[in-house]
Design brief:
The protein is an all-alpha fold and 329 residues long. The chain contains twelve helices and two strands; from the N terminus they run E-H-H-H-H-H-H-H-H-H-H-H-H-E. It has a two-stranded antiparallel ribbon with strand order 1-2. The chain is flat, with a radius of gyration of 26 Å. The two termini are 25 Å apart.
């Protein structure tokens, strides 16, 4: 006997009383259960079959296209600024026209993309009912924007007043910013379940590494002070003549001794197993978060489908029962 299951998704989605992009009733509209689940980080609720069906429906309607649009725009943003940084590092001289027209054009395109990203972030925060949550979630983005603005400020100062010091400072700022730029791309890959669990695992590993780094610094600092008191500034010990070289020598000492590689492998395996226990739930949570971001950042995408699709066609959805349907979607 074939069983059917019915999903009343309309009960999980507040009826829309406004057009997409209209912020007139942002304060009075209630928050949907999906918003509350993502805000509270409820991994057990996000894996409920009805919530999974709601996420899958929204992902098919506009979530997938919005996620790809965000990923494409940010990839172009990253590539443009990476190319600008490399072109600036090739020569310390200011732009010489007309042979450097392509460098000027590339810089203008990168600045326009930066302005577009900042404008989209501001509009997303102003038009969202989750302003505090969005601000906390986008702290890393604003750090990247501030670093790029600082680097470009120094670079423009170097154009107006040529100085090797200003040129070197702009290059150092860009070098640091490029690393954060590419790490920022992980935020826009998290919506795809192929990469979502691994991004969550990476975040957990970073937290454990920072805790280990604190313990490492706690031990290294007193030893560094002791070695500096005894050997600092002596010509007989050239590797400890200055404090930076002393720190580097002390770091090398910690790597010279033997260590139990097998024990480290067991520890790493246990860490990955602990994080991967909730990998599927974390992947779904990341996907739901991106769907909510798309609803705020690109309300125009909702014009391409019925804004009341869930209330008209998902009340209920009747499907044959399939236990593995959600875990494999």
């Amino acid at each position: 006997m074939t069983r059917k299951q019915f999903f009343y998704l309309n009960l999980l989605e507040p009826p829309s009383r406004r057009d997409p992009g209209d912020s007139e009733n942002d304060v009075t509209e209630p928050r949907s259960p999906l918003e509350v689940i993502v805000h509270q980080g409820c991994l057990d609720l996000i894996m409920h079959p009805v919530i999974l069906k709601l996420i899958l429906t929204k992902w098919s309607l506009y979530g997938r296209s919005g996620a790809w649009l965000l990923l494409t725009l940010n990839f172009l943003f990253i590539v443009s600024w990476t190319t600008v940084a490399i072109s600036i590092s090739d020569t310390p001289k200011p732009y010489v026209l007309p042979q450097d027209w392509w460098r000027v054009l590339l810089l203008v395109v990168a600045l326009l993309l930066l302005g577009g990203e900042v404008l989209r972030e501001v509009n997303e925060i102003l038009s969202s009912r989750r302003k505090l949550l969005l601000w906390k979630r986008n702290i890393f983005d604003w750090l990247v924007y501030c670093l790029l603005a600082a680097a470009m400020g120094v670079h423009l100062a170097n154009i107006l007043h040529v100085s090797p010091a200003l040129h070197a400072t702009s290059l150092r700022l860009l070098a640091v910013t490029i690393v954060f730029l590419w790490l920022r791309l992980l935020k826009h890959v998290r919506a795809f379940r192929v990469m979502g669990p691994f991004i969550v695992m990476l975040g957990e590993v970073v937290g454990d590494v920072m805790r280990f780094l604190f313990l490492y610094v706690e031990i290294v600092i007193p030893y560094a002070c002791a070695f500096w008191i005894i050997f600092g500034g002596l010509d007989a010990v050239s590797s400890m003549r200055t404090f930076p070289t002393l720190l580097y020598s002390l770091y090398r000492m910690t790597l010279m001794d033997e260590y139990q590689f097998d024990a480290m492998g067991v520890m790493t395996t246990c860490l990955c197993a602990r994080v991967y226990d909730n990998a599927q739930a974390n992947a779904v949570m990341q996907q739901a978060a991106v769907i909510l971001q798309v609803e705020d950042a690109f309300p125009c995408l909702r014009h391409f489908h019925d804004n009341n699709h869930i209330h008209r066609y998902c009340a209920p959805i009747a499907e044959f029962y399939d236990h593995d349907h959600f875990t494999n979607s």
